[in-house]
Amino acid sequence: METDEQVVANFELHVRRHIAALQALGHPANVFTAMVADYGAVGATRRLILDPAPSYGLWRLAETGNLSLSVELATLLPAYRPLFDDAVRDAAWRKLELLGVKVPDEIADADRALVRD
Q: What is the dihedral of CA 86, 65, 102, 17, to 10 degrees?
């Protein structure tokens, strides 16, 4: 069983890989990258998701078909459940639903991809 520190380290790596993937797609994610530098991946994710308005980055990911790179989706993955409380997960779920995402399907796809990493 993983320790809390291992789960945090895995999430940090997950987020940094997804930031790099976003940058490769031409989406620099400058604001979120700065938030990660200031608060760590977990803290930045909490702040971003608990903001009532969906971020520009989330809209952009939906628009380009890259929602699998969103932290909103990452918070809903079973591997990262210990890091986020119900308020964060509920807010992430609602934001994804607002974009027309079939959340359970996206979670299943992302979870399968995570296992391969």
A: -40
What pLDDT, in 10s, does the model give residues 10-41?
999 999 999 999 899 888 889 999 999 999 99
Domain tally, the chain: 1
Per the prediction, the chain carries an average pLDDT of: 91
Over residues 98-103, mean pLDDT: 91
**Cβ proximity of 11 and 80 under 8 Å:** yes
Task: Give Cα 38 to chain centroid, integer Å.
Answer: 17
Neighbours of 26 (CB within 10 A): 7
Residue 90 CA to residue 75 CA, distance in Å, equals: 10
23: domain range?
Answer: 4-116
Given a contact cutoff of 8 angstroms between Cβ atoms, the answer to whether 66 and 58 are in contact is no
CA 36 to chain centre: 12
* CA–CA separation, 103 and 92 (whole Å): 10
DSSP 16: H
SS3 27: coil
